[in-house]
Write a structure and sequence with these properties.
The protein is mainly alpha-helical. It has helices spanning about 1-5, 15-35, 40-60, 70-75, 85-100, 110-120, 160-175, 180-195, 200-215, 225-230, 235-245, 255-280, 285-295, 305-310, 315-330, and strands at about 135-140, 145-150, 300-305, 330-335, 340-345. The chain is globular, with a radius of gyration of 21 Å.
Length: about 350
């Protein structure tokens, strides 16, 4: 809420970088309908891939990993899960489903925040409950040293801080203190600084970011995984969060590094959507196109597992089939044997058959 208290003063100027991002994102949202009126089958593949990537990436950022071979089962199957990690990934899946289905009808409220936390934390004693003990954010080094990176809001003050944050979010939108997208990034920053739960704050913050994007009419997260883009820029994510959280408690922090990072992620998502919609054109199958486009953009060598990791919605058998077909057509070459063999593109342009 400290960022919102600063925004309530209605800053007269917005940093140039943020203003440029806002202009670009406004233009992207204007083209959104054009992108989403493409072939239903193409968009279905993008939605499925983004859905899987979001659940896997958001958990992986927090050190929660599952076997790549089990991704399909965890996301779409009903068998018993193997351990806590799979339970949390499936819980995040359920939270994503709720947001995608409810959209703007799911309010930004304490009840929603608690519900999302309970879903992504699974069967654990404090799921959906605020922290009971103070807990600072500790950074651990490889040599065993530790440092306090940020002192979060004390447990006793957490419920009131969350209520104030939600109230200021709604007031900011109603009274127009700043552009809505700035309010979105400010909410995300303040939520992470409050750190209301013992664990799972990062995952809930990303779910809320997706939900608030829906509220503001930015629906790119339905087709491109925002969580995966954050994971790919993980170092920058933590760097800007640390920069913008310094002196947060005193209200003397600089929110713009983190605000600009949030804008960068959304802009990257829209750019990727435009690229994928423009490139997925062949009637032969959207999943085949997805793999071919990825290989076309890949520089250097790659493995089957690399493709599987980047296209979790495509089965390993289908990837093998596509690789064999592309090898037969002279587009790629195999540099070894077995599932761990490395591949590389030949010096030729992929053709559309």
């Amino acid at each position: 809420m400290m960022t919102f208290q600063r925004l309530a003063l209605r800053p007269e100027t917005i940093p140039a970088a943020a203003a440029w991002y806002l202009a670009d994102l406004s233009e992207a949202r204007g083209k959104q309908e054009l992108f989403t009126h493409q072939s239903p089958q193409k968009l279905k593949v993008l939605r499925e891939n983004a859905f899987i990537e979001s659940a896997v990436s958001s958990n992986r950022i927090e050190g929660v990993n599952i076997d790549q071979k089990r991704v399909g089962t965890v996301m779409f199957g009903k068998p018993l899960l193997k351990g806590r990690d799979e339970e949390e990934v499936r819980g995040y899946r359920d939270a994503l489903s709720l947001i995608h289905q409810e959209g703007i009808n799911l309010p930004i409220s304490e009840e929603t925040i608690s519900r999302l936390h309970a879903m992504c934390r699974g069967e654990i004693w404090d799921a959906g409950k605020y922290k009971e003990k103070d807990g600072d954010i500790i950074e651990k080094y490889a040599d065993g040293r530790e440092r306090v990176r940020f002192r979060t809001v004390p447990a006793a003050q957490t419920p009131e801080s969350v209520r104030l944050l939600i109230e200021m979010w709604h007031r900011c939108l109603d009274e127009g203190w700043v552009r809505p997208l700035i309010a979105l990034a400010a909410f995300n920053l303040d939520f992470l600084c409050i750190h209301p739960f013992r664990d799972g704050n990062g995952r809930v913050s990303r779910l809320l970011l997706l939900l608030q994007c829906y509220h503001l009419g930015y629906e790119v997260g339905r087709y491109i995984s925002i969580e995966r883009l954050i994971e790919e820029n993980n170092e920058r994510y933590y760097e800007t969060l640390e920069q913008s959280s310094r002196s947060w408690h005193e209200g003397k922090h600089d929110p713009w590094p983190y605000v600009n990072f949030a804008f960068y992620i959304l802009k990257s998502a829209y750019r990727e959507l435009a690229e994928r919609v423009g490139q997925i054109q062949s009637p032969r199958g959207a999943k085949t196109e997805l793999v071919e486009v990825l290989i076309k953009k890949t520089s250097g060598e790659f493995t089957l597992s690399d493709i599987e990791h980047s296209c979790p919605g495509v089965s390993r058998d289908m990837i093998r089939k596509i690789l064999r077909e592309m090898q037969k057509n002279g587009h790629i070459q195999c540099l070894g044997r077995g599932p761990g063999a490395r591949w590389r593109k030949r010096d030729t342009t992929l053709k559309r058959g």
